[in-house]
Design brief:
39% of the residues lie in helices and 15% in strands. The relative contact order is 0.14. It has a domain of 123 residues: Rossmann fold (3-Layer(aba) Sandwich). The strands form 2 sheets. A 6-stranded mixed β-sheet has the order 5-4-3-6-7-8, sandwiched between helices. The chain has a two-stranded antiparallel ribbon with strand order 1-2. The protein starts with a helix and ends in a 7-residue tail after the last helix. It is elongated. It is built from 8 helices and 8 strands, in the order H-E-E-E-H-H-E-H-H-E-H-E-H-E-E-H.
Length: 214
C-alpha cells in the first residue's frame, strides 16, 4: 500500500515538473517592427546605408614607428647598455651561480646597467622567504630602480609596454611567453641564460650588423 502511494506521488511530481519546464521553455513573442498594429509615429525608421563616394580620399591608420629605429635598426642602443631584468632571469642566474653584472659585461664586452621595475620587486617580495637571495641581489646599489605607475605587480605587461615606448633597453628574461612578445617589437634585443652563461639574441639585427659581427 505504502509503495503504491509512493509511486503515485512520484508520478505527480514528474507531471508537475514537466508542466513547469514547458511553461518556462516558451519564448516571449516579439512584435515585428513592420506589424500594422504599431502606429506610424512609433515605428523605428530603417537605417539608411551611407552612399560610398568613389572620389573620396581613404584614410588608413598605420601604427607609428619609433624615431629610434633607422630602417629597423635601433640607434638608441649602445654602451653603457640599459638592461631590464625580470623575475625569471634573476632566478635562473642564481640557479646557475652567475654574478648578474659581471656576466652581463662578459656577454656584451661593455659596461651594463641593470634595471629593476617596482613590479619585479613586488613579484619577488610576494614569493616569500624562498627568494630572499634574489631580493638581496637586486637591492645592490648598482641595480637601478624604475618606478611603476600602473596598478598590480604583473611585470611582463609592464616590461613590454616600457620597451615599446623606450627603445634604449635590452630585456633580460628566460620566460618563453615574454620572449615571444618581445620578439614582435622591432629593435629590442633579448638576453637570457643558456649553458651556464648569458646569451644575447637579436643584437646584430638591432645594430644592423651582419650575423656574428657582435
Amino acid at each position: 500500500m505504502h509503495a503504491q502511494l509512493r509511486e503515485l506521488n512520484r508520478g505527480k511530481q514528474r507531471k508537475t515538473r514537466k508542466i513547469v519546464e514547458k511553461r518556462f521553455a516558451k519564448m516571449k513573442k516579439i512584435i515585428s517592427p513592420s506589424d500594422p498594429r504599431i502606429k506610424a509615429k512609433d515605428r523605428a525608421e530603417p537605417k539608411k546605408k551611407k552612399a560610398i563616394d568613389p572620389h573620396e580620399m581613404k584614410i588608413r591608420e598605420v601604427p607609428q614607428t619609433s624615431s629610434a629605429l633607422f630602417f629597423q635598426y635601433n640607434t638608441q642602443l649602445g654602451p653603457p647598455y640599459h638592461i631590464l631584468i625580470d623575475t625569471n632571469f634573476i632566478n635562473f642566474s642564481i640557479k646557475n651561480k652567475l654574478d648578474i653584472i659581471q656576466n652581463m659585461m662578459d656577454c656584451l664586452y661593455a659596461k651594463c646597467i641593470p634595471y629593476i621595475t617596482d613590479c619585479v620587486l613586488g613579484e619577488l617580495e610576494k614569493l616569500g622567504r624562498k627568494y630572499r637571495v634574489a631580493l638581496r641581489i637586486i637591492k645592490d646599489p648598482r641595480f637601478e630602480r624604475i618606478a611603476c605607475l600602473h596598478k598590480g605587480t604583473y611585470a611582463d605587461d609592464c616590461i613590454v609596454q616600457r620597451v615599446t615606448q623606450h627603445k634604449c633597453y635590452i630585456v633580460a628574461t628566460n620566460d618563453k611567453d615574454l620572449k615571444r612578445r618581445i620578439r614582435k617589437i622591432p629593435g629590442v634585443p633579448i638576453m637570457y641564460v643558456a649553458e651556464h652563461k648569458f646569451t644575447i639574441e637579436r643584437m646584430p639585427d638591432a645594430y644592423g650588423a651582419p650575423k656574428g659581427a657582435i
